[in-house]
Q: What sequence folds into this?
């Protein structure tokens, strides 16, 4: 059986008629080599936001079922146009909605989870030598209600199809060349990584390097699906994401991530009693506020401070919920800080090396950058610092861990 | 069982967020009276043309299957928005795509015919007291491919639903108050007709009074479904279209229609032999040119002229096809005339009255308007005249047949 590739193109890759034609050319070129191809496409750049905006002009609280009905049209438009562009190049192609493919999800509208994918239609079309173009981001519930998978859902569609179709690789096309050791706009000597582990990619994604949706990386990791993040507009290899990365040298850190879109909330003088923290976060969760870093230090006085970060867009909603909690649990008050940045070093290498934290804190300290909050995972250390020091901190850490230097890593 | 109304709103009725809100208010008001309502909606004004334009930017010959995939999104957007607007007013509503309803069509993409409608889902939603909002113009083939019903297809969706659901009435909402005796922009004293027969409406529709798609009137006629053409923005009664209209007085003519969007093509010196006309129109049909009036007079010289009209937008394509035919059948040549208007008088009354033609030709002649071509049906007489005389002719005929005068007609 010839090689099977899943290719996913994001909104910027199909942002205009010209770009759709370009993508079509690229797909046809690969198909002529005898490869079988399933393409997953997002909505034309900006379309989803325009549709959401229309809905909010109608009502402040649109029904989630109707929201899915509305925004799923975005992908339906792009798959049809891409199929036409491929036909124009003389190649057979067929576009399919999530429902036509048979991507069955649960009924959680706007954030549905895939429960099953029927592969019959796609396999039949592939057998007829057709290029199959699937509308990303969408599925249908068992009752054939249209559902969507949440932001970045097209990545998930691609990875899930790669799994059920046993694809050789899942290629994620984007407007950057791959995953970098740091944002090249901040650190000019930042290097494109040629390979990366799922774990590292997960940490980088959740830290704001928005090339790949976290849930899709989790699925790829669970089923060991090789991912390849690469540019829609260049032929060059991008970054391959695989199971485990064998280090030829002692690489500790693979990249520096920066996120300036969060704000910090601190609840002061929280009574240090069992169940209080649980009470607080239960209230926050039921207010539908997504929180990121949570930090609480040991109490020595009978009360403690609890800090956490939220997306800036959710700050006012979060503060409202929290003010309610403060009086319920008898805490001292709430402080919010809009002026922070989260900087993180990520790398599987730090699992077995203790010195990374010391080097990170040391180099920031030497540069006079104050660390306000620290949180760590097995392969990541994140610090909150003042926002105006963010770019400087990225540069310092990139240098400290020698990330500009070419190193040899290989897939296991 | 409470009354069941099908309401169809066209593109201009849902042309903006404000209009969608207004329509929602109207629907809710009726629903509060205890009426069961199924609403059929077209795409937001202009959307379908925008999508078609996108397709033609990709390729000059888009696949019809992909075209349906593309343009069916227009109605999906409007049903979702209308459902949201109804929710906002505190009423339950659910939007459904053609596929979700179970509007099954044949596989003729872009001009599919409805073969079956499953009423299960709609009936269940109506039973739950929901306002059901159906995407017009679309269906699915037995293989669940998305199809569309051709221009004006939302009218057909509405009428077909009225039939299978045994609705009490099918209301067609539009931007005019109803069907008029003539275009009120030309004849200020033109009167809104309160009732009209299916036959008359059919002739008026095919003659350019674009308030209702012809196929949908045919279906309404076949199954005797009461139609009510009325304004989206006013409460007043519009025009009711029913089986037979009993005349209280001897009404001969119910309206004057004008169509300036056609051009005339004449094939000269066609050999008067059996099979030649068939050969010509077979060729034209296979060239996918839609033709309207066909006129051929008796031959007295061994050859004859054949004239017919086509939509102006199809003129260049038609001429190309016809030039080929001319040489095949050995005709003398082709003349095309862009400068014509088709004026028609319509009325069931003329079935039993011979004098209508004489009065029509006489009054036009007196005014110095030359009649180039004549064609008649049982309840209609159409003439081609010079375009610059068109408005004058409408005024003359409106007066000749006393259409400004209020007459009593009643439904049988």
A:
């Amino acid at each position: 059986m010839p090689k099977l590739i899943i290719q996913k193109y994001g909104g910027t890759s199909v942002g205009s008629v010209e770009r759709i034609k370009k993508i079509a050319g690229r797909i046809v070129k690969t198909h002529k080599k005898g490869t079988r191809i399933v393409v997953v496409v997002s909505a034309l750049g900006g379309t989803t936001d325009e549709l959401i905006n229309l809905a909010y002009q109608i009502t402040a609280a649109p029904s989630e079922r109707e929201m899915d009905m509305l925004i799923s049209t975005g992908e339906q438009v792009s798959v049809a146009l891409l199929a036409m562009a491929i036909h124009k190049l003389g190649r057979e192609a067929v576009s399919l909605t999530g429902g036509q493919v048979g991507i069955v999800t649960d009924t959680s509208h706007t954030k549905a989870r895939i429960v099953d994918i029927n592969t019959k239609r796609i396999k039949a079309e592939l057998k007829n030598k057709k290029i199959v173009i699937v509308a990303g981001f969408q599925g249908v519930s068992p009752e054939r209600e249209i559902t969507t998978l949440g932001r970045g859902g097209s990545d998930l569609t691609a990875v899930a199809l790669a799994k059920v179709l046993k694809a050789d690789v899942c290629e994620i096309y984007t407007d950057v060349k791959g995953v970098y050791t740091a944002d090249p706009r901040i650190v000019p000597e930042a290097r494109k990584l040629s390979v990366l582990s799922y774990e590292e990619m997960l940490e980088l994604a959740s830290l704001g390097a928005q090339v790949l949706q976290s849930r899709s990386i989790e699925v790829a990791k669970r089923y060991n699906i090789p991912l390849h993040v690469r540019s829609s507009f260049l032929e060059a290899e991008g970054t391959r994401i695989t199971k485990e990365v064998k280090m030829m040298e002692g690489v500790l850190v693979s990249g520096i991530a920066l996120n300036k879109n969060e704000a910090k909330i601190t609840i002061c003088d929280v009574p240090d009693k069992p169940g209080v923290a649980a009470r607080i976060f239960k209230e926050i969760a039921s207010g539908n506020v997504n929180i990121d870093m949570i930090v609480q230090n040991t109490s020595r006085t009978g009360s403690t401070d609890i800090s956490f970060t939220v997306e800036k867009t959710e700050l006012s909603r979060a503060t409202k919920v929290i003010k309610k909690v403060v009086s319920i649990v008898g805490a001292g008050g709430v402080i919010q800080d809009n002026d922070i940045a989260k900087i993180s070093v990520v790398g599987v290498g730090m699992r077995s090396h203790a010195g990374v934290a010391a080097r990170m804190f040391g180099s920031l300290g030497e540069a006079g950058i104050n660390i306000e909050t620290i949180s760590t995972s097995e392969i990541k250390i994140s610090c909150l610092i003042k926002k105006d020091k963010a770019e400087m901190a990225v540069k310092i850490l990139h240098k400290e861990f020698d990330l500009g230097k070419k190193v040899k890593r290989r897939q296991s």
